[in-house]
Task: structure prediction
Amino acid sequence: MPERRVLTERELNRALLARQMLLERVKGPIPKVLDRMGTLQAQYAPSMYIGLWTRMQGFEREQLDRALERPAVAQGTLMRATIHLVSKSDYWLAAVGIRRGRREAWLNASYRRDYSASLMSAAARKLRGRLGDDTMTRKEIHELLGSDSVVTNGVNMWLDLVRVPPSGTWDRRRADLYAAAEHWLEPSPKIEEIDGIEYLVRRCLGAFGPATLPEIANWAGLHPRRVMPALERIKLRRFAAEEGAELLDLPRAPLPDPETPAPARFLPIWDATLLAHCRRTGILPEEHRPKVFSTKTPQSVATFLVDGRVAGTWAYEKGKIKTKPFGRLDAAARRELDEEADRLAELHA
Result:
């Protein structure tokens, strides 16, 4: 067997930036950009807009509003039981791929031992019957299903729900209006679980690869044993990480020169590039991780990149983007960051 190419942290960093469109902004349409991103984590509504703005040429907030209203994209609880923005065409593949795994994980939690699949299925049928082709607020769902918050918060594991506009948008950030996905989007086509998991693997590698099996499973929110059969269906490139772990990748996926310049970029709260499955890329230096994710700031914080790595945090205050670097920035980096901040302030206006 030929010796596998070893990829350095910096090579993995530039691969991530290229695939996430953080080296160079791209033109839409939004659904195609989301597919390249491997979906967009969206439990805080403005994160969707900022995440697209930092990756797309000429992005304006109204573009996403229109895509949500059409709908060409949808917000739903998907990977890792977390709200994601995904293209309409990808929604059902993701939903079917994770369905069984997330239900099992939900039922296996120690504090849910008194809840069964049959109980949750009954709650889902009751809600689906009431929803019909209409929408319901979170309050109405709680009133329908009763005072047990475990049931009302977990029912979307058994019924595919999407958040619908005007809720969950820049102007109405509270995401409290829901519809059945089969009504708001379209009924689910016939998809086998293995096809959904294969889709998840391809999206993960295309957006975040090269990656190890545990990293792919972590991103998808599935046990590695569920992911392995899908890997066997895909033609893969195989590399080695510096510590020896096997890295998997799609053929012809970009691997830029590690010395490729990386421009200043602003990231929203919960940008997926900063999560555990991207740890080996060094995009979030470990010494700074507690400043971004901690028990004191469970919602995480907005960050900015300098030379492809998190170098500080930012916030929109009084019409301007205020930055707080973690260390000294040289004059060129400071100038580039300020110019990018001015553009981001325009998005907020």
